[in-house]
Amino acid sequence: MPKFWVAGLARRKDRLDDLANKLAGKKGKFYPVTTDVSKEEDILRAFAWVKENLGPVHILVNNAGICKRGNLQDDHIEDWESVFKINVLGLCIPTREAIKDMKANNIDGHIIHINSIVGHQACRGASVYPASKFAVTALAETLRLELNSLKSKIKITSISPGLVDTEIVPPHMKTENVYKEEKIVGPAEIADGVVYALSTPLMYRFKS
């Protein structure tokens, strides 16, 4: 087994397989695990596979997210539920499972939430998406307080980018002018932020 390995959890198996093929021959190993994070049973099955085939969890990056464009005056509950199911519960469940595994194996692991700038300042036109990201901000801080109270060395990081060139951004926002004005960044830049966060040293100060 390689020294470094990553399990990638996502709904679309074809996309996971394409990524695995692109990473073939690179340092480490990528394992595609088809998972719908809106379904707890899928998440539990994925974690069971990881523990059985790869070993204990050391790092969790919560990156799944959706945005339903609209406004709070007219939107439907089905849209609201889907956003919170993925952006909030789809983050809480993997976090719970990862921390349980880290504790069971005495691992000082790292949990990283990919948040958003709208998790700190609201915006129009995104319906409950900002609320879901404000929840991520609160969840990261609440988890930090919980872990500190237990004197745990498990780290929690929340990364809050602005516009990122992914499928969540509507095509009309991906204009040449937006790129020239540096209002949008690429996924690789967010990955660099994750790597930097993982490289930071442990801190053993505990605050109540």
TrEMBL record:
Pfam family, one: adh_short
Keyword ATP-binding: no
GO molecular function (one): oxidoreductase activity, acting on the CH-OH group of donors, NAD or NADP as acceptor
Superkingdom of origin organism: Eukaryota
Keywords assigned by UniProt, alphabetized: Oxidoreductase
InterPro entries in the cross-refs: NAD(P)-bd_dom_sf (IPR036291), Sc_DH/Rdtase_CS (IPR020904), SDR_fam (IPR002347)
UniProt similarity note: Belongs to the short-chain dehydrogenases/reductases (SDR) family.
Name the UniProt record assigns to this protein: Dehydrogenase/reductase SDR family member 11
